[in-house]
Design goal:
heterodimer; A: 267 residues; alpha/beta; Rossmann fold; 3-stranded antiparallel β-sheet; 23% strand; B: 252 residues; mainly alpha; 79% helix; elongated
Amino acid sequence: MTPGKVIVAHNLVKTFKDFRAVDDISFEVEGGKIFGFLGPNGAGKTTTIKMLTTTLPPTAGTILLDGNDPQKAPLAARRSFGIVFQDPSLDGEMTAGENMTLHAVLYGVPKGERAGRIEAALKFVGLWDRKESFAKTFSGGMKRRLEIARALLHTPRILFLDEPTLGLDPQTRNHVWEYIQTLAREKAMTVFFTTHYMDEADRVADEIAIIDRGKIVARGTPEALKENANAATLEEAFISLTGHAIRDEPATARDRTRTMGRLWGRS
Amino acid sequence: MGEIMSIIYILWLRQLKRYSRSRARVLASLAQPLLFLFAMGFGFGPTYQKAGNGSYIQFLAPGIMAMAILFSAMFSGIEILWDRQFGFLKETLVAPVARIQIVLGRTLGGATVAMIQGMIVFCFCLIAGFRIQHYDLLPVAVVFMFLIAMLFTAVGTTVGSLVEDMQAFPLVMNFLVMPMFFFSGALFPVANLPRVLKGVLRLNPLTYGVDGLRGALSHGFVFGLGADLVCLGMATAMLLGVGNYFFSRIEV
């Protein structure tokens, strides 16, 4: 396992009409590190994750995921990462096991290895005995764990987590972070996550970047960030860097009609 | 190659599993065709017979089968909207798979479900008194069922890729599906219609599907077997292309 730069973003720009959502940002993440990407609502976090995960083409700039350019080689780039989206992305009408099998097939896991890997991944998140249950019967935390297990099936080198602990109770949140830290440690996986819980970022991240209004305003270890901002907690540092104003985010058609989705373990 | 087939297969299987697990959906999408079959079939039967056209059920049944396939296929295509809302769509779209494989798997799955629905309605037609005239043409009837199913799953895929909102669903039903059904010759013979109406019918691809089914199962072909196959086949190929194009442009 080479410890080189597994995620590289260089002069990344994304504009929507005349709005610069992501304004010339660059960062690199070393292999096996846990990287926290923080910022207020509408700062450009999700846009950046979308560009990194090949679902949105950047206006300018380059990305390399484990050496693959998502624009030039999207399939290779997609094989190199697993992702847990901000919103659930399971098929509730299928069982946990069926969700896993479908993912294994989509990601080209060889037939002979599927069963073994599914068992290992489900055991890792403690859902092996629930593999026959429909995903819709799972609690919010169980769904998250299932999604993490699913994202690991194709043994990616990078794991993207977009607010993985949103809407979970403290017990489940701790549980989820424990898994993630174990992953980074034992499987040398590079983890890129966003969150609004500063204490969590402070606890688990090796390095943090804070983005605001499309620009990276600070980077470093949690300790360095606190020290530079002369703050006792990461939250204080965050607020001193990004200000007190509350940000607005326009709702999409999906948000407006998401009433059903809200039943999915979100209060 | 094997990998591509297994991707298409697993997505096909998913559609079938979702269908077989949702009894409410099976019942709901059968209710309307059966209502038409029994209410119209027996309601207009005597009048139709007096006009010297023979059994109305014999005429109507293939149209009702086409209707069941149309409704079910459109619904399967539009399931993209549900998958979008429940987030599952993202899981397939970030997978290292060409979108055309996803479209193919989904469309074949949706079309298979629609054909099953068509077969169920066919059984009810037999109960209602429908009798097959040309047993040797049964395979031709199956081909027509398949083409109708593929065509309208593709239409559903197109609509589902273009609109983001579940609220668009009733609009689609009222302005696309219902007119297509009513102006297809499913309910009345094309022969003596006013010119304008006849023109509208000839523009509707479902007309050829209904004519093909009816030709193969009971009455003769109005447009001819070849014309029906060519028109329906071309429309299906075209819509598959259109559906694939719009599906490949979905951003999540």
